[in-house]
Amino acid sequence: MSSAWQFYVATLLVYAFVYIIAVTGLNLQFGVTGIYNFAFIMFQACGAYTTAVLTLGRSTKSFQHFILGYSLPFPIPLIASGLVSGALGLVVGALTVRRLRADYLAIVMLVVSLIATALTTDATGLFNGAQGLALIPQPFASITSSTIAYNWLYVGFAGLVCVGTCLAVRRVIGSPLGRALRAVRENDAAASALGKNVTALRLGMFAAGGCIAGLSGSVLVGFIQVWSPSSWLYGETFVLFTALVVGGAASNLGPVVGAVIVPVGLAEGTRYLPQIGAPTLVPSLEWIVIGVMLLLFLWFWPGGIVPERKRKFPQTEPRKTASHILVELPNDGLQPGAVPVREATRR
Amino acid sequence: MSGQLMAVDRGLPVIQVTGVSCVFGGLRAVDDVSFSAPAGRITGLIGPNGAGKSTTLGVVAGSVRPAAGSVLYKGRDITSWPSYRRARQGLVRTFQMRGEFDHLTLLENLLVAAPGQLGEKARWLAVPGKRWRSQERALVEKARELLERFELSEREDAYASELSGGQRRLMELARALMADPSALLLDEPMAGVNPTLGRRLGEHLLELARSGLAIILVEHELRLIEQVCDHVVAMAQGRVIAEGTMAALREQAEVVDAYIVG
What is the tens place of the pLDDT at every residue in A319-333? Predict the structure, then answer.
């Protein structure tokens, strides 16, 4: 591969991993727990900004203005990004999930996202306002001076974070915790009546999803080295939602498939189109295509490409026959001597 | 935990409702309602539409906050407890409608209800461990036994949304039992159930009461009430208008006017 191609492929892979991480976090919130977090991108931004201000060094020595300003070595900024975004999730969750049900929460989160963008843009001392932050240090710059080698190294790093995230979320989804979360998604009143602390579960997923989004932001910003309010406009959240719906919500593989098809595939697929009309036409059409995709999938293919799997439990020992149960429970309403259905079908 | 059924003394009030009132806007949906439900008895709650039966049940279950009054459960004041906390202590309700987890299988619906699951806690999931998995296997066995008992085994892997109305009612009852209850609050379990299944449901309830559960049964279907309830509380317009056996209630003109005829 020529170095240009290597650069392109490596960049593409990093983007794919970042999107997979983010969509996996969203899957935990929306796919599994049924939380409409329309401010999801804000948590990715929080992670990106955290990494930026923990690696950029003192603001006074810089042309840009921002808070904190440390030069902490890897992996502290990555971990901090996860923790800060998770904490932000807890705060936002605590203010909203207790009071608001699904659709109202969605509206409020959308507004929260807009407020966050406006705040970061206008409070220029926070993260350098609309210009955003640039020249964010690369975490592994000291290891190699070759750009290509560095990019491949970064692919490996992003891949590791991605695999780790996917495995952790997979474990949650397949566990009794995942079942309780799906119960909350299906019917929160019934879940509560069966002893599930619905508020705590939702809050936990706000934090966990926020943490994962923060990790994705940290990985992304360490690669592209710039971050500004235009990187995380509220529309980006819907790209992630579309990816999740297209790929398949609440499944393990769905976020991977969706992230590869929607943000990565669509953006790269249109890159090779000849210019039609104004230069902004194709990028604008992308948004329309994403919206149409979301609608079409919700309408005709709501399970997505890899739908949520039905969970079946293996038979651990030979089933007790119904006649055995009759002995154990003489008053359960069965007539003695009645042939149990399964017995009858077996004969 | 199923041993706790044995620990409950029969005749002792498991649930004690005292002076409960609920106000929605200007409407007094429940007005100074008091009654009790002892272990081993099925206490019926009847009355016309809008009498406040379901709201009263909601107060006992913790989904409705009363404006006044108190709810005692096994002698403890639980009036301010959230519903999940009551459920964890064995006070479990079913729903009048839409109580299922639609996109969970029948078996999973039951498994959700099991109390004290290690695998629901992040600290158990964070470490490689077998303990929650072996607990899970035991719970699957328990759930399968309940499904056998209610003759639902064939539908174990069906989504709850694929069940018939009657099967859903049975599933809800099985699910409530999965939670190791000492008291059951049943909100119109007969809705949408055919008479044959209804009789069987009644027999199940009698069996459960015999095993020591306190059961409160809100029901429109008087046949079921007559079949299973030793004690019936009749409500109208938010108040308790009469209490006693069904036969005694039929004698009282007020109840007959409010409900049985009208």
Answer: 544 444 444 444 444
A177/B119 touch (CB, cutoff 8 Å), yes or no: yes
What count of other Cβ atoms lies within 10 Å of the Cβ of residue B221?
18
Q: Identify whether the C-beta of residue A92 lies closer than 8 Å to the C-beta of residue A58.
A: no
Q: How many CB atoms lie within 10 A of CB B241?
A: 18
Cβ-Cβ contacts under 8 Å, B119 against chain A = 175-177
Asked if A308's CB is within 8 angstroms of B103's CB, the reply is yes
User: Residues A199-217: pLDDT tens digits?
Assistant: 999 999 999 999 999 999 9
In a domain, B160, yes or no: no
Share of chain B above pLDDT 90, in %: 64
Report the alpha-carbon angle A66-A70-A74, nearest 5.
125
Give the ipTM: 0.90
Domain-located, residue B107: no
> Which domain does B219 fall in, by range?
4-102+180-260
User: Is position B157 within any domain?
Assistant: no
- Among the ranges given (A77-91, B1-15, B227-241), the one the predictor scored with the smallest mean pLDDT: B1-15
Residues of A in contact with B85 (CB under 8 A): 195
- A318 cis-preceded (ω within 30 degrees of 0): no
Residue type, A255: P
**Taking CB atoms and an 8 Å limit, are B87 and A194 in contact across chains?**
yes
